Amino acid sequence: MRYGSPLIALALLTGCGGGEEAGNNSATADAPAVTLMNEEAAEADNAALAPLPEPAADMTAPDAALPGIDAPPLAPRAQPTATPTPEAGRADAARVVRAYYARITRGDYAAARAMWDDDGEASGLTPADYAKRFDRFAEFRAEIGTPGRIDAGAGQRYVEVPVTVTARMKESGEVVERRGIVTLHRTGDIEGATPAQRRWRIASAEILPKPPAAPAAEVPPTAAPAADAIVTARYACEGGVRLIARFDNAKGEVTLRRGYRVVGTLRQQPVGSGIAYKGEDGLELRGKGDAATVTLPGGAPFACEAR
């Protein structure tokens, strides 16, 4: 009995196999059984499946009778909405005019000129001429009145702001007073307009000397001044050009200005209907109603509209 049976030794060797394999075999024994099917069986199994029901048209309110549905559906997430920026109005226009004359008062003429349309070109003056125009005053003060209504058309906005200017000349010390209208322009809040185009800019400034008050004895009580003796029209033209036309019906002439620069004086011409005025070097103004055509010296006619 010194040596054991060969069968017993073989059993012992089988029982003492590697640990890893034993563990793997144990894990395999614990896993659920997986049944593999061939292609024919898979097709037959798919064919046996009942078709899925079509989704209901209203998916916002699930059926409360379905198992697991015990709460109302979640409300749809609110989408953020952009708050529209209000358009620049009459108060903004008054602030622009006030800032404009504040720059002139402190001698910042370049900054004041830059507040005009077309980067200052609408003033009708070069930067040097613009500075000379205001540098002759020792004192300068402007009172800003209440803006008029905003005129809107073709995506553009216009507003007139009354201004009274009091200034003292450097050389003579004379105090002069002028009053008139500053017209501002901007593009409406339309698609494609830049923020700079939506801001108020100065389109024209008609500041005329204040007429002296006549003595009462020189004006008969029954006399009334001719209401239409002087008529002023402001034209918005092609290419962003702004013109001021001052019609003197008593003299039969009109003076055209662009900003502060006088373009020329034109004489009235006989015409069947509308208006016609001619000046030197081909300067011409024709129109009917609010529509007009202006021809500058050496240039082609361009369309304008009275504002």
Architecture of the domain at 87-211, according to CATH?
Roll
Task: Describe the largest sheet.
Answer: 8 strands, antiparallel, barrel
Shape: globular
Helix content: 10-25%
CATH fold field value of the domain at 87-211: Nuclear Transport Factor 2, Chain: A
Beta-strand portion reads 25-35%
Number of beta strands: 13
Find the structural class using helix and strand composition.
Answer: alpha+beta
> Span between N and C termini?
132 Å
**Low-pLDDT segments:** 4-39, 214-227
Q: Helices and strands, in N-to-C order? A: HHHHHHEEEEEEEEEEEEE
CATH class of the domain at 87-211: Alpha Beta
Average pLDDT over all residues:
76
Give the oligomer, counting copies of the same chain as homo and different chains as hetero.
single chain
Using only CA atoms, what is the Rg?
44 Å
Strand order of the largest sheet: 6-7-8-9-10-11-12-13
Total helix count?
6
Describe this structure in words.
With 307 residues, the chain is α+β, with helices and mostly antiparallel strands. Among the domains are: 87-211, Nuclear Transport Factor 2, Chain: A (Roll); 228-307, Beta Barrel (Lipocalin), CATH 2.40.128.200. Helix content is 20%, strand content 31%. It has 6 helices and 13 strands. It has helices at 6-15, 19-30, 39-47, 90-105, 109-113, 127-135; strands spanning 137-144, 151-153, 156-169, 175-187, 201-209, 230-237, 242-248, 253-258, 261-268, 275-278, 284-288, 291-295, 302-306. An 8-stranded antiparallel barrel has the order 6-7-8-9-10-11-12-13. Strands 1, 2, 3, 4 and 5 form a 5-stranded antiparallel β-sheet that branches. The longest helix has 16 residues, at 90-105. The radius of gyration is 44 Å and the shape is globular. The protein starts with 5 loop residues before the first helix and ends with a strand. Residues 4-39 and 214-227 have low confidence and may be disordered.
